[in-house]
Amino acid sequence: MAKVMKVSSLLYPLGNLLANDADNHHTQTMSLKNAALLAMIGTVLLTIVLILNLVNNFLAFMHGLISAMVLLSSLLYAFVALSVAVFFYIFHRAES
Question: Is a pLDDT exceeding 60 seen at residue 60?
Fold first, then answer.
């Protein structure tokens, strides 16, 4: 008779090497406050990049190199990124 293998052993050949019990965790759990802080840090960095892009596009617009629509879209991106950063800041403070 043919040997029947479990589906889990076919999909995860290293499954026997990993801890299987709930008491032995490999990683710490992340709290909602830490996740909000991490999201806020990433969003603030993105906001800085988009504001620098807005300044660059404004200078290019003043020199006549780009159209007003490019400047408007850059302004919109910077505003949305700033709004999301403020949201994460308020959410992070509410979690404490």
Answer: yes
Does the pTM exceed 0.85? no
Question: In angstroms, rounded to a whole number, what is the distance separating the alpha carbons of residues 59 and 15?
Answer: 57
Residue 8 resides in a domain: no
The parent domain of residue 76 ranges over: 30-94
Q: Residue 77 falls within a domain, yes or no?
A: yes
Number of domains present in the structure of the chain: 1
Lowest mean pLDDT among 11-20, 30-39, 48-57: 11-20
In a domain, 73, yes or no: yes
Q: What is the DSSP string of 38-72?
A: HHHHHHHHHHHHHHHHHHHHHHHHHTTSS-HHHHH
